[in-house]
Amino acid sequence: MQRKHERRSTGKTSVLKIDKDCFVDMGLNMEYVRTILHTCRKYELKVLWVRSSKSRHGMHFYIKIKPAIEPHVANNLQYLLGDDAKRVAFNMARIESGLAEWNKLFERANARLTTVYRNYHIRSAGSDVEIQRFRAPTE
Fold it and tell me: What 3 state SS string does the chain have?
C-alpha cells in the first residue's frame, strides 16, 4: 500500500511542453527560445531541439532535452519556463496520482510543428563540432 505523500513512478521524460497563452512578435519568440536554452543549461540539461505550433490562444513549445528527467522536475522546469500555472497544477495532480500521460497539450487536429531551434553534433576525424540552428516561428 502506498503512503499519501509518496510519489508513484511515472517514468522520466525528455520532452518539455509549454503553453504560452499570448501572441507576441517573432523577435520576442526567438528571445524566448534563447531563454529556454539558458535556463536548461543552468540545470545541466542540453536542448536538442525546440518546436512550436500555434494554438487557439498563443503558442505551444516542445523542448527535447538530454538527459531525461523525473516528471516532478520537468513540471517545475516547465513552470520556470512560463508554462500556464493552471496547467502546472493539473500536471502536478496527474504526476502524484501516477498517471503516465501527465504532460498533455491539446493540439488542433491540423496543427503543424515548426522546428525553431536545433542542436547538431557532428563527429569527424577526431574532432567534435556542435552546430546550433535558429529559425523564427512561422506567423
Answer: CCCCCCCCCCCCEEEEEEEECCCCCHHHHHHHHHHHHHHHHHCCCEEEEEEEEECCCCEEEEEEEEEEECHHHHHHHHHHCCCCHHHHHHHHHHHHCCCCCCCCCCCCCCCCCEEEEEEEEEEECCEEEEEEEECCCCC
